Amino acid sequence: MAEPGVINLNFRQALPAPLLYVGFVDYYGPLDWRTHSAHRHDYYQFFVVTEGRFLFVAETGENLWLEPGDALIFRPGIMHNWHVEPDTCCRTFMVFFDSIPEGPFHDIQERLSQEPLPGHWRLPVSLEEVVPLLAAIRRECETSASLGTAVVYGLTMTLMAACTRSLAPGNGAGGGNGLPPAVLKALQYIETHFAAAISVVDIARHAGLSTGRLTELFRLHVGTSPLSYLNNHRIDKAKILLLYSPLKLAEVAAQSGFRSLPYFCRRFGQAAGVTPGDFRRGRFEQVLHECASTPATERGLSHDDPV
């Protein structure tokens, strides 16, 4: 087994829009949150596991275990972190890309427009279908042959089209799982302004509704009131900062939209059942314990497998 680290083989020539990066990344564990920090991108990230086991921790705090044949797409701006277990190698294929313009592959963007929350799409992938495409892309990354840019572009976009076929096609307007446009506008306003001193009146005004109508639509389509959703959203953002940043508690409170540390601690304790400090310590220890307690044989891995 190689020393812990990351080995990258990427296509080094400039790629046509929307592609920003195409490459193969091998991760040799242990790699955890003590060796890297959480981050976000201004672009989409497409990620396929071809060997081993990889853990993404999404902005929601959800553990997303990926095994061979699993693919994931993060939309822009989503905070995430990752983990690779000790004595394992995880091999992946990765693409960074911007919004896909009109053209033969725009249907991919149509499908991605349908699910603005929670910010990622998990996709089943047929390795039998994609392995030949990946092998051809790898050859181009290794050789930089003539017309390599066109070949990599065509193969990569075809691969992503194949992997996103399981998503429902849309109308290009961002269906939001059937949510009314006014509710979507309210949710987007909260996502953008949750750290500011906003009120239900502000949210309703932005959505073009009265506060009563906004509350009625939220209870019908979201399952809670706008104020409860806003407070829960702020708590979720605080959890992300507690997990992924070195910020002090007062800084976490301020960046999550809470105007005082005591109020933040009280609301956080009511929502999470623990103090912010205990949450920060306990969550990290819990995930590492889950990693250590799952035998490799249960995951289809063997320490004797070649790397």
State the CATH architecture of the largest domain: Sandwich
Overall residue-averaged pLDDT value:
83
Low-confidence stretches: 171-177, 294-307
Can you write the helix and strand succession as a string?
Answer: EEEEEEEEHEHHHHHHHHH
The total count of strands amounts to 9
Q: Could you name the CATH topology of the largest domain?
A: Jelly Rolls
Q: State the domain count.
A: 2
Distance between the termini: 7 Å
What is the gyration radius calculated from CA atoms?
A: 21 Å
**Any idea what the CATH superfamily of the largest domain is called?**
Regulatory protein AraC
Query: Portion of residues in helices?
Result: 40-55%
Strand order within the widest sheet?
A: 1-2-8-3-6-9
The CATH class designation of the largest domain is Mainly Beta
The general outline is globular
Largest beta-sheet details: 6 strands, antiparallel
Classify the beta-strand content into a percent band.
15-25%
The structural class is alpha+beta
SS element count, helices: 10
Describe the structure.
The protein has 307 residues and is α+β, with helices and mostly antiparallel strands. The protein has 2 domains: 5-173, Jelly Rolls; 177-287, Orthogonal Bundle (Arc Repressor Mutant, subunit A), CATH 1.10.10.60. Helices cover 42% and strands 18% of the residues. It contains 10 helices and 9 strands. The strands form 2 sheets. It has a 6-stranded antiparallel sheet with strand order 1-2-8-3-6-9, with helices on one face. The chain has a 3-stranded antiparallel sheet with strand order 5-4-7, with no helix packed on it. Strand 4 and strand 5 form a beta hairpin. Helix 7 packs across helix 8 (249-255). The protein is globular, with a radius of gyration of 21 Å. The N and C termini lie close together (7 Å). Mean pLDDT is 83; it is low at 171-177 and 294-307.
